[in-house]
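Hi F.,

I've been meaning to write this up properly since the lab meeting, where we talked about keeping a consistent format for the predictions we share between groups. The idea is simple: the sequence comes first, exactly as it goes in, then the structure tokens exactly as they come out, then a line or two of notes. No screenshots and no reformatting. I'm using this chain as the first example so we have something concrete to point to.
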Amino acid sequence: MKIVFQKLICTVCIISVFCTTLATAEIVSQVNADVSAQLVSAPSAILMEASSGQVLYELNADDKLPIASVTKSMTMLLIMEALDFGKIKLNDKVATSEYAASMGGSQVFLEVGEEMSVEDMLKAIAVASGNDAAVAMAEFIAGTEPAFVEMMNKRAQELGCKNTHFINCNGLNETAEHYSTARDVALISRELLKHSKILDYTTIWMDTLRGGEFGLSNTNKLIRFYKGANGLKTGSTSAAKYCLSATAKRDGMQLIAVILAALSSAERFASATKLLDYGFANYAVVNAAEKIGELNNLAVIGGKTDFVKPIADKTVNFIVKKGNQDKVEVSAVFDEPLRAPIAVNQKIGSATLTIGGEKVAVCDILACEEVKRMNISTMFWKMFQKWLYI
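Output, unedited:
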């Protein structure tokens, strides 16, 4: 009996492993993130495509490390979200506290009581990495920096950052309790890029504050020297060494290259350049909806209207090896018969996208309009119309 039970358990395990293999193999990725050649000299790095979140390359991407002023990518994210929510406005005046003015390191030398607009504070943070401006904005949004840091940590958890913890809003005076990873920084950067307005500031090479009296020069040298560069944040301290979240966009593909703990500033930019070059040379992003194209109307049973217009989910992007963009084949299956009521954006089918017979993506097919259930008056009207045309 014991032997039979052991055989049964073994069989169940084999079936479980087989099913798991089927599930994980359902979509065949075009990406080989396990590159044998080390593309960077820094100890930790990652390359991610922004729209899909697909990782194209990684090296010790989950190592917990100090990230210096790259911390401000989360600070900028919370600023952009406060703007979108309407909590603050770009022309709001932000007063500088004594605490904010006391910040050392990179700064725009805010004086106690000095006021700057939110827009100028964003410039100071994004371009010059102003520690004082970051604290001033933290206090403006949350009342105190500790309250703002609590918001930062909560937002990091919401984004799925499993190995991140902040103790301040600017990355200055880091301790062992202030850390992140290349993967988590990429996730934060990806979320920040969803706020396209931030690129108005992260792409500035040179600008001024205080009516032209104070010059700004971007700490991210790739903005000037790398084609398509559009952000995002540099950082350096003696503990963190040289860090960078570098972003660039070419041919519709937005990449995020995170470098942590490089030994020199030149090394972080060189490593980021290699990662971005690798991504642009080998991969392309494809929008599933564009490949699926326009779909024919589908019949609806019991609705006030007899048909519904199906559309593909426009948010589904996937990565293919460069040159495979035009090799994508599409097959769609619909949830027929469709019965009213049907809600706007309700899933009514799915499309499978393949390359050479291998599944590379699945995209939901949605209803682009509401179809209400037929009432008695509608039913009689339809019957009357049919009688007229008999």
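Notes:
The longest helix spans residues 2-24.
Residues 293-388 form a domain with the Peptidoglycan synthesis regulatory factor (PBP3), Domain 2 fold (CATH 2.60.410.10).

If this format works for you, I'll send the rest the same way.

G.
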